[in-house]
Amino acid sequence: MTPFVTDVSAPAKRFLAALLPLAFLSAPLPLLAQPASQASADDLPLEEIQTFAEVFERIKRGYVEEVDDRTLLRNAMRGMLSELDPHSAYLDEEEYQSLRESTQGEFGGIGIEVGMENGQLMVVTPIDDTPASRAGLLSRDVIIAIDGTPTDSMSLQEAVTMMRGEPGSQLRISVLRTGEETPRSFTLTREVIRSESVKHELLEPGYGYLRISQFQSRTPEQARQAIERMQRDAPLEGLILDLRNNPGGVLQAAAGVADLFLDSGLIVYTEGRLADTAMSFSASRDTPAGDVPLVVLINSGSASAAEIVAGALQDQRRGVIMGTDSFGKGSVQQIMPLGNGEGLKLTTALYYTPNGRSIQAQGIEPDVEVVRGRLELAESRLELRESDLDGHLGAQQPMTQSRQSASERLRDDYQMSEALNLLKALNVVDRRRR
């Protein structure tokens, strides 16, 4: 084996000393030249540390531009974390604050959740009612450039930082869509993204719609209030829980939302190397949704916490999962603050559904597969209704604006329309069994 090179400069020696355990600090540098095979399994890999120091020194001496030690060390830490998995990252102070803001539900940007897949920056989902969703960005669009800068060598955190910015400023991104050869260019104006994570409405009397766009700290309570409002005048006969294009969020929030529909049993559990990463969440008896028939909508943009909810409801047979396969992010990240005001986002565990399924890189498979589309009614000259006749009597109770709006949304959203039809069918079958 080639011996260690011991002719390194003083800065490199100091760098080595900072990395080595205290047991080595008093040893002269040539002592580190022992072959790696003689080292204990618990010792640091001295050869790799020496190589690291050598690379560090050569960059310091020979790189075309002068680079300070702080920059080199930060880049080393970023690389160390980014090579673990697509979700682990070193966060500088700005990135750390940005992540905290997004978890709390307010930040400046275009309203898009992104991830890395096979080295490509990809749209996981656009957040509802944001510049990204209004511009027409779709899940699985590959972002190839941000403000003219190619993303092929860009880390996830660098991309997020570039897309965040002052409200009113513009951002130009180029994306490559599946099945297309020519990139699309979008110019978006950043806004203050105050993402209300829960929306609700009655599609028809007795049939509710609950949309959760992401899981924030207050999402379970907001969802509970929405369900109670929809049941204020009359009990619900069916409910659609829409988790499409939901990028995830806080693990505890996902468990809290699932608990709104379950009165017992396991919701999710996590397993990692450390004792404090092993957690489990079970349902409580207090559930505002009771036994209301439930259809859960998912698609390829449903990730992480959204998959926790869908997986729990599917395993406990509490509802019918409808749509297309989910994203498949089954890992848990912890945000760890550092003493310098910065932080780490580190993957520390995998989560499992009540039946022990890990959906990492697999996703949730729906019980009923329905692709997204638009309901088109074929025109026919033979169809004639009372309202088409001249001089017909007017309705005693004209359709309200809210019902008309819901009807238009059902026409534009085939998956939602099919979910409502399924809920009605379930109620018909249930009544016949009584």
TrEMBL record:
Leader sequence range is 1-33
Q: Which InterPro entries match?
A: ClpP/crotonase-like_dom_sf, CtpA/B_N, PDZ, PDZ_6, PDZ_sf, Peptidase_S41A, Tail-specific_protease
An annotated GO cellular component of this protein is: outer membrane-bounded periplasmic space
Record's protein name: S41 family peptidase
GO MF term (any one): serine-type peptidase activity
Q: Where is this region: Disordered?
A: 388-410
Q: Name one GO biological process term.
A: proteolysis
UniProt similarity note: Belongs to the peptidase S41A family.
Q: Which organism is it from?
A: Vreelandella populi
